[in-house]
Each structure stands twice: as C-alpha cells, then as structure tokens.
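dumping these here so i dont lose them again. two proteins, back to back, each one seq then structure tokens. dont judge the mess
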Amino acid sequence: MTSEDSSYTWRRAALRRTVWLLLGLAVIAVHMMSAGRAPATADAGTPIGANAAAQTLQTLVGPRPEATIRYLPADFATVMGYRPRLDGAYPINPDGGCSSPIPLPTRFEPACRTHDFGYDLLRYAQRTGKPLGPWARPALDHMLVERMRALCHDPACGTAAELAGAALAVNTWRQHSGPPAASESMTTIVASTAVRVIAEIGGGVGGSR
C-alpha cells in the first residue's frame, strides 16, 4: 500500500468516526429534549379549520386514519403528482417505502408508505404557502414508530424499530422539524448535524449560567 493509499484510508476512517460521533451526540441531544414529552399535536397558532393540509395530517395521525382522504386538499394530486390510496385503514404513497441506513423488516413497508404520504403533506403545505408548524413532523414520526413497534414480536424486529425511531428523531431534529429536505449528500448531512449539535451544546452551556 502506498503512502497515498494509507492517507486516503485514514481520512475515510476519520470521516466515519466523525459521522458516528455526531450522530451519537445528536441522539443524546434529541432524547434529552424529548424525554417525558407527549406526542406532538397542532399548536394553538395553527388554524386547522382553514388549513386543509393540517386537517388531513391531524386525521392521519388520529384514531381514524381511514377518514384522511375525506380532508385531502383538492389540488394535492396536481401539486405532488399522485393521489394516495388506502391500504387497509391507512392512506399511502403507492411509490413510497422504507429508506434507512440499516435494513428494516419488510413488514414495515406499508407503515413507511403512510409516513411518506405524511411527509408529502408537509411538502405540499410548504409549496402552497401554508407550511405547518413544528408539531406536524414529530407527530408523523411518532405514528410510524408506534406502528413499527406494534408489528414486532421478536427482539431483532424490536431493535430495528427502535433504531429507525432514533434515526427519524435525529433527522427531524436536524431539519428543525420542518418539511423534509430534498436528497442530501453525506457532506451536507454531516455539516448540518454538526451545526445543530454545536448549537445545542452552546445553548445548554449558555442557559446554565
């Protein structure tokens, strides 16, 4: 192995260590902030009756998700390029699915497609000039994790659900609970995670004085 190859290998190993360190710090920060917190709901500043996307999302994460289609904004299909369909009691993005850095059980796929549809509601609301508040994305993540847990009856599946939940929490926290960003490079993910971790650490130190 040449010295150039050794240097490249060392840089890759250092990058992997940095990524895992940042993700670990982010998970700790997210769990500290969410400990004991109830599932998110619409805040008082969200005019549900006047916002079809908010009404749709509230119904999706509620006890009767099958009623979601009733509240779907009339132009959702035009803006987002598809119309959700029902899979059992849950509306789904037919082309959605689980995207995760770790392999997930295939039994999670329907729940992931519903979660994808929920994220598209966030994107729709932003594109139409009525973005939803920071309550919306965590509520969708909570719904997905609870459905994953309910599908598990063995330790391996349960571990996958918890890891997926942690990854969701970090990503939502990293993006300030706003609409999901478009496809991002690893460099962008690492940089934005670092910025959030530093901000949280700085805020914690400043707040303790």
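---- next one ----
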Amino acid sequence: MDQNSHAPEVELTAEEEQAKLSEVLQIRRDKLAALKNEGKNPFEITTYHRTAYAKQIVNSFDAMEGKEVSIAGRIMSKRGMGKASFLDISDSTGRIQSYVRQDHVGEEAYADFKKWDIGDIIGITGEVFRTQKGEISVKAEKIVLLSKSLLPLPEKWHGLKDTELRYRQRYVDLIVNPEVKETFIKRSRIITAIRSFLDCRGFIEVETPVLHTIAGGANARPFITHHNSLDIDMYMRIALELHLKRLIVGGFDKVYEIGRVFRNEGIDTRHNPEFTLLELYEAFTDYHGMMDITEELIRHCAHEVLGTGLIQYGDVEINLDKPFERLSMLDAVKKYSGVDFREITTLEQARAAAKEHHVEYEERHLVGDILSLFFEEFCEEHLIQPTFITDHPVAISPLSKRKPEDPEYTERFELFILGREHANAFSELNDPIDQRERFERQAALKAAGDEEATDVDEDFLTALEYGMPPTGGLGIGVDRLVMLLTNSISIRDVLMFPTMKPNKD
C-alpha cells in the first residue's frame, strides 16, 4: 500500500504497532543502502544553493511568478498521480507545494523521486506558478535528495499527542507542529526587543560568572558542583544580582544581563531548574523608577512582537496599555483576607491570626514572614491584571532598602499578572552595616536548616563599604514574559529543551 494513502485506520495492538514500525525502519534503511550502492549517497552532499523560501514565494507571488527558484526543505506529504506528483515542502518559514512531472525532471530522476519518503530533505529548482486550483507552487525542473530520513514522522503512526514526548524530542515537535516554531520565533523577538529597549536607554549589557563560590542574590536552593583544580565546592548561580551591583559600585550607571540561572527546586508549569532571567541596575534611582521601566519594557515588548498591548491569554484579556495598578502588600492582604497587619504588633498576634485563618507557618517565621504567607494564600490568585505589589517586609527582603518612614518594610515590589509573579525589584540596600546584619540572619537560618537561605558574601560587603550610590534594581523572568506574550500554559512550552527525567526505555 502507498505510504501516503488515506485508507481507514485500523486500531493496532502495541505489538502490531511496533512490528509495523520496525518494518518501515528496515525499508528506509534498505532504500539508503540501495542509494549508496548506486553511488547516490545523500549524506555525501555538503551544500545546496537555495534562492528562495516558502513564505517569500507565497507573499511575493506576483513578483516571482514565472521566475526560476531553488528551494529546499523536508517532504511533509506526497500525492502520486502516475507520471506526475504533488508534494508539500516545509522549510524554516513555512510550507509550499511543488509539482513534479516525469517529462520535466527526467525518467531516472522521477523514478528515484517516487522512492523518497515523507521526512526526506530535498532540493527543487523550478518555475513559480499557480495551479488550476489556485495553489501557489514550484514546477520542478531539477530535484535532488539532500538527506535521507530513517525514522517516520510521528503523525504517520500515532500523532505527536504525548506532551512529554514533544518536550523530549523537540526537534520532532518543531517539524510537525508549526505553531511551536512560531512560539520560539516570538521568544527570540521578545529578547531582541528587551535588548533594544535597554540599549536605547543607555544600559550596557554585561556578562557575569555562572560559577559562584557563594550562593547568593536570592532565596533558592543551589546546584553544587566541585572544582577539581581549586579543590572547592562551587554553586551554579541562582541570581545575577550581586555581581551586577559590584559593577554599579565600580562606576557603571546602567547595566543589565540576560542569562541562565539555576535553582535546585521542583518542576511544574511555572518552574524549570534552569531558566532565563533579566536583571538590570540603574544608579541614582529607586523602586519607583524600576516600576516605570518595568511597565514600559513589558508594554514595549508586546507592541514590538504582537503589535498591541491587549493580550489574550486563554479566555482572559490582559490590558498592558492601561497603567499598572499599585498596591502595598499590607493593603492587598487587608483587601483579600480581611486581616489588617498594621494592627498586628507582636509575633504572638501574627501567629494567632495565622491559626484563625488556617495559614500554616514555621517556628522560625517572623511577623513579616507570616504577612507574606497571608499574601500567597489570599491575594495572588486575584491579581490577574498587571499589579505592582509594593512594600514587602524586611524579613523576606534581605537585599532591599528599608522604607525610612516604616523601617519594618522595604522599598520593594513584585509585579503580578495572571496571579503569578513576573518581576521583582528593589531600591537596593547600600548600607553595608545593615546588609551584614541581614546576611548574618540569613546565615543563621541556613545553619538552622533553611536550604534556601544565603551565605555571608564578604566580598560584596567590601564592595558596599567602598560606597554604592542609591540604586534601583529589577529582575524579570524572561520565560514567564514569553509565556504571557505567546499564550503558553507551561514554561516547558517556551523552553527549547526543558529539563526532563531521563527516559529509561
């Protein structure tokens, strides 16, 4: 039976399915062996001069009609009609049809062509035309096999419906699901838009170390490795912050980095052990300045990539053009839980409120920690439209400057959209004495078993003692921003190769 016929599907057992697949695999290898025996090994071809792409031909048909082009791509379908055939070719820009006739390409070439399989990569030279049915096509005059596919594309058998398989074999996912490729094209454009936005505002892009001798800059469990020559344990960075702020001390006014960070934590729809983070720091501004730049940056990316600030995410429309709401954590907790932490002055009162509202806490938690737990429990799910949550307690903000009028809270914000955090920013703490006290509290928490607490970074404290100007700092999760702007449900949908448990099959 022709491999491209559309006979009714018969449900096969797993054993029958495997036997059928094994037969196809053998047939393809036999075809390759025959090609090699005839001196036509496709894997020996090193280059092909392509003059046009599928999307270019379709979009510029009026200008290209009747002209000769050379295209190259993967066979996605074949429809044989005796001495003439149609096939669909997929390249990096899309698909286009080709019409292949024996009397155009030659009897020998056509005989070879009929043996080619879906998935094979080929080159076609011919004239651009429109068929009687109105399909823009390339009328083949020369055809060449550029690479032999030894595995059938998955939809030939069972479709690429297995989400886990799609992530494991992203290369196949990209072949058979064009919308996936579009997501990653948008991801690239979003990162380009970020760089353009910051570069135009005088920021300098820098690179800082991935391997750290101290895990710091965020509360997260690090990956630990060992440097053999130095005979020391080192940490994959969990944040970019502390090295970038050293550059502010050194005299740079505006710096940023877009880089991978690594956190040895769980995997779910929002978290992957390695992810992309944007961090930027600007001297002589504060968290209000960071709110402005965050709002402008996200709006800029939306308009650059999507052409609008109205974003459809599932069945929700997000308005990025409207000024983002600003709400303190205290006010948010009071609004959504009914508990006013301004009236709570002792740890005992905070614990009593937590018990009354069924909020679980640990013995090490202070009032500020419990306030944060209330926020997570009662508030986050309501923050659908862009909302800046400001003025976090000191207990959960070890690198943020205190509010002068209320020193138990800090000049910090997190941006929430769709109930999830998209950005985190501070007026950066530049008091080395205060910073040491907070580092030492973190170190005590770590010694007590908190695996996410940080160490005392003596070199960073030395840098602060030389003097850091008032500075605003911002971190944006690039992957979550891409999820937002591509209507993607899971972070795995916007990572080319998400972290997966090894397949033991």
